[in-house]
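Fig. S4 source data, part A: sequence.
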Amino acid sequence: MCGAEGVSTIRGIVSNVTLDVCVKCTESMSIESHSSPFERPKVQPRREIVPRPHAVESELSEDFHIRLRNARDKKGWSQKELARRMNVRVNSIQKAESGTRPTDDMITKLEKVLDVQLKEDPQAGRESIISRTSSRGMTIADALDEFLQGDSDG
């Protein structure tokens, strides 16, 4: 109606004629929107959001590639043999053994075929207890001193 270009339009009825009309014209001229009895209304599929149980997800261990190589060697398989048994390309095995992170599906397959655990609890081994007899609390400098004293002791 107004001649605007590049704006979204809806079908409206003006003088018993169906036209594509911009939203601005629809509102300002009180144009009735057109709905065809033959068009099915677009229904958005409803997705039900299912809450996941709160579980600690495991992370790929930092030494996964070493664990992978050791497990393969323990079975006496070459990289080519492992790739054949997993139905993957040899370069996928080579990349994983060189430290490139494989896909989650590949990690699951590797763990199953080689009977090895490549993932670990993300909190494992990362907690340390730091105690101080002083009432002033621990500072970064105190923690650094304790760390450096630990290095000189061992």
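Fig. S4 source data, part B ends here. The chain has a mean pLDDT of 78.
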